[in-house]
Amino acid sequence: MSTYAEDIYNRLAEQIIHGQLQPGQKLDEQGLAASFGVSRTPVREALKELAARGLIEFLPRRGAVVTQISLDQLADMLDAECEIEALCARLASQKMNALEKSLLQDLYEQGKDAAARGDRTAYWAINQQFHDLIGRGAHNDTLAGLMRDLRTRLAAFRQAQPQENGDRLHKSHDDHGAVMRAIVAGDPEAAYTVMRDHNARLAAGVLQLLRAREQQNARPYATLHATV
Length: 228
Hints:
Blueprint: H1 3-17, E1 26-27, H2 29-36, H3 40-52, E2 56-59, E3 63-66, H4 71-95, H5 98-117, H6 120-137, H7 141-158, H8 166-184, H9 188-215
Helix pairs in contact: 1-3, 2-3, 4-6, 4-7, 4-8, 4-9, 5-6, 5-8, 8-9
């Protein structure tokens, strides 16, 4: 992608992830070009990349719209994410080098400080770095790419969770501690199990909340942060 297209892609992806662009919402190519002050070419490039990532889809007579996912599809994707990220944790416990393990420990300590302060924004950023590092630490580009793409597609659904209270922040951090210790200790089965349990707990909470909202005819997306 060109520099302009990459910038547009990043900004639109962020809006989708944070629920500012809703499922089913149309993305008008000409309107976006005017909004970003560019020609339609980089907008078209960005939309193609968003479609490749599963964040939007092109529909006949409608053009580009934000992807709508059924609860059954969402359940499948969350289950796949649980398995893929658990596999990454298992491989990371076997393949991470000393520097990567040290960075993981540092992120855990930073998360501890953010949780103690009740700083959800800081914890969310650290949380993303923690999971990204485990994906890279698996040293398997295929798995890391699948993990990254799924986390991107599912980010908006995770944000349907209510804002964390102190207990939820600390529970998330405790889970991260168990994952970190298993990886640093080089224990692949423990790393797999604790990471899968960590994500499965979140997935169950997301699905329960969205099913309740669906029954109330509420929209599945919210603009509240979730922590995984």
